[in-house]
């Protein structure tokens, strides 16, 4: 029987988020120092630098998608508003994960050297999310481009004005709702 792992996944992903926020190149040695986990243990658990960053991206995306799908698939036309507000809410309640998704560059954190099973999982999540947006737009006879702008692009741009160095204020929600409503009125 093997030893129980003492690696805190959230501590590791938090340290990845910290490195992303600093804008520095991601380094395993710095991650080991930040987490107190040996370089060897990190490689043993994740296989590579790309394995660590891809796992952090997947964790953040899965957490975000859970909230997003619940909102966009909820009943009524207001589901779009609820979905648009997931991004700022997520940024306030899951700050470290939000920094990874909103500030980190996908090409860096989830590149071609990342484990294929993680890349496939991310693609599946993205496809499911896109499908939910398309279903919402069709169900309510809305332009898909307007939905993408109002539900995805405007909220993401809004939180990027603050992350990684500032907390996303609650007042941003009203601007996101105004942008969403404006986008939905474009025909």
Instruction: Tell me the β content.
Output: under 5%
**Alpha-carbon distance between the termini?**
63 Å
pLDDT under 50 segments (min length 5)? Answer: none
Helical stretch tally: 10
Q: Which H/E pattern describes the elements?
A: HHHHHHHHHH
Radius of gyration: 18 Å
Dominant shape: elongated
What does the largest sheet look like? none
Summarize model confidence as the mean pLDDT: 93
Beta strand count = 0
What proportion of the residues is helical, as a percent range? over 70%
Question: Structural class from helices and strands?
Answer: mainly alpha
Write a structural description.
- There is one protein chain.
- 72% of the residues lie in helices and 0% in strands.
- By secondary structure, the chain is mainly α.
- The model has no long low-confidence stretch (mean pLDDT 93).
- The termini are far apart.
- The longest helix is centred in the first third of the chain and has 24 residues.
- Helix 9 runs antiparallel to helix 10.
């Amino acid at each position: 029987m093997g030893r129980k792992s003492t690696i805190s996944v959230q501590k590791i992903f938090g340290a990845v988020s910290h490195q992303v926020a600093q804008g520095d190149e991601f380094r395993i040695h710095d991650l080991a120092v930040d987490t107190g986990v040996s370089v060897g243990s990190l490689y043993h658990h994740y296989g590579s630098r790309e394995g660590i960053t891809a796992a952090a991206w997947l964790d953040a995306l899965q957490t975000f998608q859970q909230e997003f799908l619940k909102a966009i698939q909820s009943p009524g036309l207001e589901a779009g508003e609820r979905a648009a507000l997931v991004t700022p809410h997520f940024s306030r309640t899951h700050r470290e994960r939000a920094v990874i998704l909103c500030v980190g560059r996908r090409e860096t954190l989830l590149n071609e050297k990342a484990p294929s099973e993680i890349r496939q999982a991310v693609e599946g999540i993205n496809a499911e999310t896109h499908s939910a947006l398309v279903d919402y737009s069709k169900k309510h006879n809305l332009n898909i481009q307007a939905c993408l702008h109002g539900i995805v692009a405007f909220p993401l741009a809004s939180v990027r004005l603050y992350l990684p160095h500032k907390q996303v204020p609650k007042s941003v929600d009203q601007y996101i709702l105004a942008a969403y409503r404006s986008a939905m009125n474009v025909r």
